[in-house]
Q: What sequence folds into this?
């Protein structure tokens, strides 16, 4: 693959590159940790229809809360990286990512806090959240945040990346991720289990690869020289 050595984006400074690297690499690593934890959680249940229980459920909730700020940080770097004619799109993508982070952080922290309470009410709330049937309000909000706001963020950020092979790969995968997430949302009223799988393929499989490609792009690009201090 052609490297980005020597390529510069006007106005994209060292601090912007550092923010993009930290945000994208951390988002990718935490997302992979979430995938491993959820896999272990599913392996621990006695039947496929049983919900994931603690400690896996609590760890997964905390990982989402941890990951959300780094998704936003990455999109801040994407907005800074965007050429002038694409900044309206990158700004909208950043706004939708902020909405996603706020909703999913709130829902998952509430899930973590309530799951720690040894009461019948909290147990019923947790079971309803991870239900495979028609999703209740907390689960529906989380689905909506990932399948709608994350999708819009990906679709609007895609035009920013055009040119080299790595940028074109980011562009194509962002479009693919956004379309899959929206398909999951559209299918949700008909079959929540199938819609969940489609959404996971979008934000849980293709999404992390987007952030891996972004991490590589920000790592390999040469930042614009910082302006010299005034004499």
A:
């Amino acid at each position: 693959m052609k490297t980005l050595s020597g390529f510069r984006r006007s106005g994209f400074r060292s601090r912007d590159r550092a923010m993009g690297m930290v945000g994208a690499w951390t988002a990718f690593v935490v997302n992979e940790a979430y995938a491993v934890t959820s896999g272990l959680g599913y392996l621990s249940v006695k039947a496929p229809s049983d919900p994931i229980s603690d400690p896996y459920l609590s760890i997964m909730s905390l990982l989402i809360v941890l990951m959300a700020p780094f998704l936003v940080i990455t999109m801040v770097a994407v907005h800074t990286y965007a050429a002038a004619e694409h900044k309206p799109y990158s700004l909208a993508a950043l706004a939708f990512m902020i909405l996603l982070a706020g909703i999913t952080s709130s829902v998952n922290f509430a899930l973590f806090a309530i799951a720690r309470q040894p009461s019948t009410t909290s147990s019923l709330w947790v079971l309803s959240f991870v239900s495979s049937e028609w999703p209740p309000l907390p689960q529906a909000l989380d689905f909506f945040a990932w399948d709608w706001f994350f999708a819009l963020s990906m679709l609007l950020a895609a035009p920013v990346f055009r040119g080299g092979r790595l940028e074109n790969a980011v562009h194509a995968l962002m479009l693919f991720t956004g379309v899959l997430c929206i398909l999951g949302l559209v299918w949700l009223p008909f079959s929540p289990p199938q819609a969940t799988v489609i959404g996971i393929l979008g934000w849980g499989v293709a999404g992390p690869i987007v952030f891996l490609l972004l991490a590589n792009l920000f790592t390999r690009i040469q930042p614009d020289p910082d302006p010299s201090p005034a004499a």
The chain is about 75% helix and 0% strand. Helices lie at 14-44, 56-81, 87-115, 120-129, 137-157, 165-187, 192-220.
